[in-house]
User: Fold this.
Amino acid sequence: MSYQIDEDGSVLLGKNRVPVPATVSVEARTFLAPAPWAEPPAPDAERLPMWMLRSFVDEQMKTLSDAALQHYPVDVEEIEIAGVRCHLVKPKEIPPENQGLTLMNLHGGGFVLGSGSLIEAIPVAFHAKVPVVAVDYRLAPEHPYPAAVDDAAAVYRTMLEYHRPDQIGIYGGSAGGFITGQTIMRLEKEGMPLPACCGIFTAGGDLGDLGDTASIFTLMGFWGDLVLPVDHEISEIRAYLNGADPRDPGVSPIYGDLGRFPPALLVSGTRDALLSATASFHRALRRAGRSADLFVFEAMPHAHWYTFHLPEAQEAITVMTEFFLRHLGVKTMKKEGES
Assistant:
């Protein structure tokens, strides 16, 4: 789609002008009107070899994770669970009512990038005052589907040795959000007890059809070119699927039986390339009679909560942590006992 961004952030789409909404924060208005020429150019995903692209992204993710640690002081320890590299992200203090509660985080990165990213685990652990196990699952193309799901399921099984299922929640953003849904379908298929809740952020349940917004926006909304093309040899989805049927319920839960899916929180933005995918999966869960909440932030692009200084990012993280605490172990049982 051809467009032009003015200095004030307004986007010209043909003859139509899309202003930055007055309802977003001052910080968001600045964020939505960047000067791309002032930033170091991002690598061309179509021309760089995978190792070089990974190196670039890993460096960016480390910078973001370091910034997150400065903003949200927590303890981080590299560990191994069921043979899978993980990071245990622990708040400095855990209140008595949160003892025994835990979360599993599956990072984003288009299924091919982002190894070791903690930019979703750190803020949630800090605000929820709950430990988060960040799973460094295997990446495509070297390890296509179902390797990441195998890793996530193996970690979850081990977590069940130390926690009740009602004490565990699973969440992830972007690719990690898709893998969250796939992991729940795997656990259901294997007859495993399901987690108390899940978070599927800027992701959906259908890897075969990402919907309208995937053809309208980039990962940064109207600016940038940050989506790996689906028809390219290093395309994240094609590399991840590696011939797997995208209509298989294990790959795309939207085609399966969602009747026992745990309470889900879905979060996106109106300028998110995966808004359609997120909204479609929310509707599928509601049609199945499941508890599913959808939060859509005005003018926000893909995973805007990575930009910690935005009030909209703070609000999104608050929404996430409040949802988890509302459904995890102790608080859930208290509600049941009081009713």
